Amino acid sequence: MDTFVQQLINGLNVGAIYALIALGYTMVYGILRLINFAHGDVYMVGAFAGFYIALYVGFAAGPSWMALAVVLVGAMIIAALVGMVIERFAYRPVRKYSRMTTLIMAIGVSLLIENLFVAQIGATPRAFPDFLGSQSQAPYRLFGNAAISKAQIVIFLVSIALMLLLQWVVFKTKVGTAMRAVSFNLNSAKLMGINTDAIISLTFAIGSALAAAGGVLTAQYNPNIDPLMGILTGLKAFVAAVLGGIGNIPGAVLGGLLIGAAETFVVGYGQHIGIASTYRDAVAFAILILVLLLRPSGLLGSTVQEKV
Amino acid sequence: MPTFVKRILGLVIVVGVLVAVNGWASRDGLFGFGLPYYYAELLSLTGISIILAVSLNLITGFTGQFSIGHAGFMAVGAYSSVFLTVYFSQPVEVWLTGLVGATVAQALVFLGIILFGALIAALAGLVVGIPSLRLRGDYLAIVTLGFAEIIRIIILNIDRVGGATGFRGAVSPWEGRAIIPQYANFLWIGGFAVITIVVVYNIVRSDVGRALISIREDELAAEAMGINTTRYKVLAFVISSAFAGIAGSLFGHYRQFLHTNDFQFIRSIEIIIMIVLGGMGSITGAVLGAIVITILPELLRQLPGNLIHYRLVIYSALLIVIMLTRPQGVMGAREFGIPWLKRSQKQPEGDKPAGEKGVPIAQSQEVRK
User: Fold this and answer.
1) Pick from B72, B29, B79, B96: which is nearest to B241 by CA?
2) Which residues, including other chains, have CB under 8 Å from residue A192's CB and lie 6 or more apart?
3) pLDDT band at A77, cuts 50/70/90?
4) Residue ranges in chain B assigned as alpha helix (H)
């Protein structure tokens, strides 16, 4: 039982990060029907933005809550700008073309960001500063032998806060109403006087900021950051978005948590039923295939009938 | 000239060129002029890229089904064929050598191995294709990507093919060849590249090809016209996978070393870039794209000073620029070749089929009257 609770905590923790990234995928897909392949790389850019802010502002010296807050917000702002630039200069010009063109464009942007980072700073991992002090990995006993670390608590609290904030923005503000209108029908929204370009830009900004928060938070748990860290995490987060029902915000969170938990359980219990822990990275894809075959609209998504 | 004479002449020329280039690229060289090994290897890798690009073009360019898992089928072909070579081919080769001599025996064994690799890859294509081809567009793309990753991770966990250390030859508790023999040379690779081009060209121009293109243009309309879209999509996918398997087994028997890192997500992307660059739905475009994308990174190695680190940046920026300026690819759906060169001579108006560029349908119908 202790092991089970422990695995669950670890799994949900990884899942919370996937959920933050999945929100960006799901929001962009909801509006543009585009798989933003570069989103995983924006998560990486966010982690590095945090790294360099800490380096230049001088917070790397000692741990403090203040430093974590500044780095988190700074990284989110930078990533939001990066997301907006990508949308403006790469996706907007090809929006009128076929979906295959936009998908290839997304892959191109993703490759460009990765290779630019590898060329500029090299592929060797950097150590992200530890803002939570030497105690960050020291566990708090919950009950029995199950424990939760300070870093894990921070990840849970910050991600829950951000998700609630997003929920508020999308459902309670005027901008959120506009976002939902654009995702419902872009052309009708335009006819209603909504500045759709601005709303799409804003969607990218919000999604990218959430991904950057995911990047900084992951780095508190696992301090090795490198330019290619976004590829696999990004793909898994995308799977999370599909699992929850792409375009559906609570679905992305649910999908992220489920994927994280499933992955951790395969590592923890897989060997008892003959699945090596090296299959960890295959879990998300296996889930993806099952979901698409059994329920393509995802757990919380609604089926859309194709019109002729 | 009668058609069959033309065909035989073409075959003789192609075989002649392949044999000559193969001699030139071999270690001994041709008439004392050898190609340095680096260039010979590049030439062979280009041939493998051509097989991959042209075969992917069948499913992505002509049928319009976006697959990002081609490297997965290449991996299946590579590993299954090399597995057969390492663990089971030796006794057969020895037995055949007694019957027909070493050279022919080796060729026969390798041909069998390549066909085995193609068959296994085709089976994998069938298993992946039947469920996934029910999906469309982005979903299909992401499922093929998922299958390719799963294939890679499964191979990574099979100890008998070396797992994470790579596959060079028989792995210790099992007995077999200690190293993978280098069966493949430019003659094999170039030969199969030509076969791939001819097969895909003929498929595209047949009734099957018309069905595939109609699926690309409008799947619902194609279905309404009585085309069994699922059957044709799976068929295209299986053929495409089989050729990817052939490319994989040639790759394995040329490199003599296999590692799952060679078959990652990025490899599939590379093949897509080839057909995007050349133009989706153009065979000559795919060939052109395969040549450029295989050779370009090597050319960029010669960039001066610091720029060398930006090799891959230039490569990905190129992809973005193409998408921004010419999203249909350099060639679009056009082919080039001898007729293309001849086109500068003015055609009589009435010869153009109805609806072709430049002749309004109404007008051409009047001409026909």
Assistant:
1) B72
2) A181
3) very high
4) 3-25, 37-56, 70-100, 102-132, 137-156, 186-205, 207-217, 219-224, 229-255, 265-278, 283-300, 311-325, 338-342, 361-368
Q: Is A140 helix (H, G, I), strand (E, B) or coil?
A: strand
The chain A residue lying nearest B156, using CA atoms, is A278
Looking at every residue in chain B, the average pLDDT score rounds to 84
Give the Cα separation of A165 and A162 in Å (integer): 5
**What pLDDT is attached to residue A62?**
65
Nearest to B319 among A33, A111, A278 (CB): A111
**Which residues of chain A lie closer than 8 angstroms to B276, CB-CB?**
104
Which of B23 and B349 is assigned the larger pLDDT? B23
Residues from chain B that touch A93, judged by Cβ atoms under 8 A, are 324
Taking the CA of residue A293 and the nearest CA in chain B, the distance in Å comes to 7
Instruction: Residue A109: list chain B partners with CB under 8 A.
Output: 320
What is the C-alpha separation between B197 and B199, in angstroms, rounded?
6
- Count A/B contacts: CB-CB distance under 8 Å: 109
Pairing label, strands A224-225, A126-127: antiparallel
Q: Over 80: is that where the pLDDT of A271 sits?
A: no
pLDDT at B49 over 80: yes
Tell me which residue in B141, B156, B313 faces A119 most closely, judged by beta carbons.
Answer: B313
- The amino acid occupying position B302 is Q
- Would you call A138 helix, strand, or coil by DSSP? coil
B316: nearest CB among A103, A112, A308: A112
CB contact under 8 A, A108 and B137: no
Tokens standing for residue B79:
């590993």
Work out the pLDDT band at A304, boundaries 50, 70, 90: low
ipTM of the prediction: 0.81
* Domain around A201: 14-229
Q: Could you tell me if residue A257 is inside a domain? A: no
The model's pLDDT over B116-153, given as tens digits with 9 standing for 90+, comes to: 999 999 999 999 888 887 777 777 888 898 899 899 99
Name the least confident of A44-48, B236-240, B303-307: B303-307
Q: Can you tell me the distance from the alpha carbon of B90 to that of B97, in angstroms, rounded to the nearest whole number?
A: 10
Selected residues 191-250 of chain B with any CB under 8 Å from a CB in chain A = 220
If one compares B328 and B192, the residue with the highest pLDDT of the two is: B192
Q: Categorize the per-residue pLDDT at A119 as very low, low, confident or very high, splitting at 50, 70 and 90.
A: confident
Q: Which of residues 88-127 of A touch B (CB under 8 A)?
A: 90, 93-94, 97-101, 103-105, 107-109, 111-112, 114-116, 118-119
* Residue A205 pLDDT exceeds 90: yes
In a domain, residue A4? The reply is no
Q: Do A278 and B157 make contact, defined as CB atoms within 8 angstroms?
A: yes
Task: Count the neighbouring beta carbons within 10 Å of the beta carbon of residue A33.
Answer: 15
Residue A144 lies in a domain: yes
Q: Are B49 and B294 in contact, with CB atoms under 8 Å apart?
A: yes
A169 domain-assigned: yes
For chain A, how many structural domains are there in total?
1
Q: Is 80 exceeded by the pLDDT of residue B307? A: no
pLDDT at B350: 42
pLDDT at A89: 92
B179–chain A nearest CA distance, Å: 27
